[in-house]
Amino acid sequence: MPSRGCSCWLLSLALLCSLAAAKEQYHEFVIRETTVKRLCKSHNIMTVNGQFPGPTLEINEGDSLIINLINRGRYNMTLHWHGVRQMRTGWSDGPEYVTQCPVRPGQSYRYRFTVAAQEGTLWWHAHSSWLRATVYGALLIRPRDGTSYPFDVQPTRELAPILLDPSLLINLNSGAKLKHAHAAYAKLMLKACSMLNIPQS
Ligand SMILES: *[C@@H]1O[C@H](CO)[C@@H](O)[C@H](O)[C@H]1NC(C)=O
């Protein structure tokens, strides 16, 4: 009996350790032309995996990401992980002709990096030509399992990140429509603020 209790204890310890351990996530980001409908109009745009905005990445501090960029689009492409400190992984940073050559159509490139010592809501986006207008998404970095946010008041709830969809503003050349889009966006922000109890000035 005592040996059984001991192995149970060891098992739970191992489980606890594995829960807190850094993880590795692998994602395929397939760039392709996709038809999306916005404001009753269809647009052919570049997307990741056919999604616009692109996929949300959710990790814990200390985790590693491996993103396999597969370019099935018509344009050169690179991806930048905005705000991520690339510690000794500069070749995964993304700006074309700065840390890498662009990934040509039909080619692929593997970004591999560890997100360490930072938490919060960041984003990723294309870093080649104007393609960031549609190729982007959120990157959520939560504290490591078992640790809390580095401020006294802990969040009571989470909201999905709000990414301003540029197609709302592109193609809206009439002043009235633009004003309408701005008003709708302001309303959305106010709603988010009241849900989060952020004072509105
Ligand atoms: C695409 O990238 C390659 C290098 O990877 C470069 O030689 C070529 O000129 C680029 N094409 C365009 C249209 O920018």
First-residue to last-residue Cα separation: 65 Å
In the sheet with the most strands, the strands line up as 2-1-4-6
Structural class: alpha/beta
Number of domains: 2
Q: Find the CATH superfamily of the largest domain.
A: Cupredoxins -  blue copper proteins
Strand content: 25-35%
Let me know the largest β-sheet: 4 strands, mixed
Keywords: Signal
Domain Plastocyanin-like: 31-145
InterPro entries: Cu-oxidase-like_N, Cu-oxidase_fam, Cupredoxin, CuRO_1_LCC
Organism: Oryza sativa subsp. indica
Q: Would you write up a description of this structure?
A:
The protein folds into 2 domains: 21-150, Sandwich (Immunoglobulin-like); 164-201, no CATH class. Residues 167-175 have low confidence and may be disordered. The strands form 2 sheets. It has a 4-stranded mixed beta sheet with strand order 2-1-4-6, with no helix packed on it. The longest helix is centred in the last third of the chain and has 22 residues, at 175-196. It is globular and about 55 Å long. It has helices spanning 2-20, 175-196, and strands at 24-38, 41-48, 57-60, 64-71, 79-82, 108-114, 120-126, 136-142. The protein has 201 residues and is an alpha/beta fold. The protein contains 2 helices and 8 strands; from the N terminus they run αββββββββα. A hairpin with a 2-residue loop joins strand 1 and strand 2 (41-48). Bound molecules: 2-acetamido-2-deoxy-beta-D-glucopyranose. Residues 76, 101-102, 104 line the site of 2-acetamido-2-deoxy-beta-D-glucopyranose. One of its GO terms (molecular function) is oxidoreductase activity. It comes from Oryza sativa subsp. indica. This is Plastocyanin-like domain-containing protein. Residues 31-145 form the Plastocyanin-like domain. Residues 1-22 form the signal peptide.
